Amino acid sequence: MSKQKVLPVVAGEACCTPLVQEPLSADATVELARMFKAMGDPVRLRLLSLVASHAGGEACVCDISESFDLSQPTISHHLKVLRQAGLLDCERRGTWVYYWVIPAALQHLSSILSSADPTADTLVTA
């Protein structure tokens, strides 16, 4: 048995300010979890980056597929997951489908992430 001294808990002011102003609502957490889950796959994260950085703001699935060592149906599946998460939208033009990033979705993610620590300007890795 340990003979450590237990210190009393003193009520008072918080030692630091909260990281966010208010907690997320239940609906917001479901929406954000879906977006983060979609971006949790390295292929999908890279796809999102390729579409976002493509000239003209939109990319044909035929152009994107060339950047991966994956089949075109697999690429289309990953794009579908990103679309269902609300990160991409698309339009069929003839035989090809063109994708573009939904700016409001990225702005929403950015605002959530930046509200956690507005002074953080570097990525911390373990």
From TrEMBL:
The record's InterPro entries line, in alphabetical order, gives: ArsR-like_HTH, ArsR_HTH, HTH_ArsR_DNA-bd_dom, HTH_MetalResp_TranReg, WH-like_DNA-bd_sf, WH_DNA-bd_sf
Q: Sorted alphabetically, which keywords does the UniProt record give?
A: DNA-binding, Transcription, Transcription regulation
Q: Which PROSITE patterns match?
A: HTH_ARSR_1 (PS00846), HTH_ARSR_2 (PS50987)
Q: Which GO MF terms are attached to this record?
A: DNA binding; DNA-binding transcription factor activity
Which superkingdom heads the taxonomic lineage of this protein's source? Bacteria
Residues in HTH arsR-type domain copies: 24-124
Return the SMART domains for the record: HTH_ARSR
Q: Which PANTHER family match?
A: ARSENICAL RESISTANCE OPERON REPRESSOR (PTHR33154:SF18), TRANSCRIPTIONAL REGULATOR, ARSR FAMILY (PTHR33154)
Q: What is this protein called?
A: Transcriptional regulator
Which lineage do the record's taxonomy fields give for this organism?
Bacteria, Bacillati, Actinomycetota, Actinomycetes, Mycobacteriales
